[in-house]
Amino acid sequence: MHLAEQRFLSLWIPLTVWVATGAVLGRWLAMPMAMLAAIPTGFIVLSLLPLALGGRTPVAQWRIWLLACTLWAVFHHEAGAITGWFAWSWIALFLLNAMACLWLGLRKFSGLLETPAIAFRLAAFIDLHLLAIAAGWFFGWSWAIAGGALIAACYCLAVLRPSCQWLGPVRLTTGDHSLLITIDDGPDPHDTPLLLDLLDKHQAKAVFFMIGEKVRRHPELAREVLRRGHEIGNHTMTHPQAGFWCAGPSRTRREIADCQRAVEEATGFTPRLFRAPCGHRNLFTHPIAREHSLEVMAWSRRGFDAVEADATKVLKRILTKIEPGDILLVHESTPIAVEVMEGVLQGTGRLLSKH
Ligand SMILES: [Zn+2]
Question: Helix 3-25 and helix 31-52: axis angle, to 10°?
């Protein structure tokens, strides 16, 4: 927020609270007395209101106050004299902000549409829904509901199933007879050094899919991973596992680009592989990964070690029916990370990638 805006608001908000309090007190007191009494009362209200209208950042705080003051203005714009005048000033401020948001949103959106694949995917997604609405219009609304449900089911399958190739190519095997261990969610100050020692002991190489925020916190670990001959992959900046599958193009781009930058700044290495949090991609992941020359990689064997506390069960799921060419998924930053890695390395031995 601009300094001049902050100065204006730090004057305008207390004045509004003073006027609003004065208007309330004016019901019982004569107006000059009410305005005088509103000075200490308004001061108390202004001290108490932030407890209810708290925002974590100055911008969030401003949004809350703007909404609260506009709400007050909607009910008081017909009041006469100074109260009505203040109410109208808040309605004008709200409209100005709404127009600015709309303009900024349109500018950002048109920038995103410059990537043809994103524009195409958005258009296809909207067209499919329009088609469902048209089917409802001509053949009855149960057709529209059925069409909508079908689109939603296909979308869920495409984004939530890590091996699904509908949205773009996903690498699931090594393409030769070796195995590849991939380690997600690091670097971790406790697990990464131990896993590196284990991999060295078995002369095995792995791909570490790292979270950008953690790379920023432990750049020395990322450098050590590369120094020992392993590869680092992009696993998004903040690992938004609950919301990445439905993220829009700008958030997807931010998550991928920021992680890419974090790894480059820490190590000088540019990741070539990308893995979405939990393997859940969204409509825009593939075109944006392509912009960064990233290949999207999933896995063919996993043991759910991020949620399972028993390493034996995890190893059973990973190692049973293991085949040459499999890509294995394990995690660090879990209580059983070292135990699982030891079991995987012992169980897979000769098949492991050693280049
Ligand atoms: Zn992950």
Answer: 120
Provide the edge-to-edge strand list for the sheet that holds 301-302. Answer: 295-296, 273-274, 231-234, 206-210, 180-186, 327-331, 301-302
Could you read off the pLDDT of 264-298 as tens digits, one per residue? 999 999 999 999 999 999 999 999 999 999 999 99
Q: Which residue has the tokens 């944006």?
A: 288
CA of 41 to the centre of ligand 1 (A): 53
Instruction: Give the model's pLDDT for residue 225.
Output: 98
pTM of the full predicted structure? Answer: 0.73
Specify the amino acid at residue 312: T
Angle, CA of 233, 237 and 241, to the nearest 5°: 95
Q: Please state, as a whole number, how many other Cβ atoms lie within 10 Å of the Cβ of residue 87.
A: 24
Taking the CB of residue 51, how many other CB atoms lie within 10 A of it?
Answer: 7
* 108 Cα: distance to centroid of ligand 1 (angstroms): 29
List domains and CATH numbers for the chain. Answer: 3-110 (no CATH), 116-160 (no CATH), 180-351 (3.20.20.370)
Is the preceding peptide bond at 40 cis, omega within 30 degrees of 0? Answer: no
Would you name the residues annotated as active-site residues?
Answer: 184, 331
Model confidence at 234, pLDDT cuts 50, 70, 90, reads very high
For ligand 1, the distance from its centroid to the CA atom of residue 74, given in whole angstroms, is: 47
Fill in the DSSP letter of residue 305. Answer: T
Q: What are the residues whose beta carbons fall under 8 Å from the beta carbon of 52, sequence distance 6 or more?
A: none
